[in-house]
Write a sequence for this structure.
């Protein structure tokens, strides 16, 4: 049965990636990126591995979307005691202080 499904053409869908839960289309990828950006707008910073839990999405898909957003210069990684992600240009209180 699986082999018959895999042999079927996907009509009208552009595939950007696969996840454990199935195929992610370009439009779904854009929706996921918007969810990530909306969430990051509400917080000052968050660990990248925690984003998927906060927005209720597949971890692998979120990790891939975070990487894509970072490469598009929409978000950035912030390295303090550990690494975080945040919106590009968003001011983080105390982030400019040297570590004690």
């Amino acid at each position: 049965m699986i082999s018959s499904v895999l042999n079927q053409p996907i009509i009208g869908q552009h595939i950007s990636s696969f996840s454990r839960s199935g195929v992610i289309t370009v439009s779904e990828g854009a929706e996921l990126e918007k969810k990530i950006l909306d969430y990051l707008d509400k917080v000052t910073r968050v660990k990248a591995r925690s984003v998927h839990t906060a927005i209720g999405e597949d971890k692998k898909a979120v990790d891939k979307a975070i990487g894509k957003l970072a490469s598009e210069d929409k978000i950035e990684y912030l390295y303090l005691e550990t690494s975080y992600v945040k919106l590009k240009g968003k001011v983080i209180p105390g982030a400019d202080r040297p570590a004690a």
Notes: The helical segments are 2-6, 26-42, 48-55, 59-71. The longest strand covers residues 15-19. Residues 1-20 have pLDDT under 50 and may be disordered.
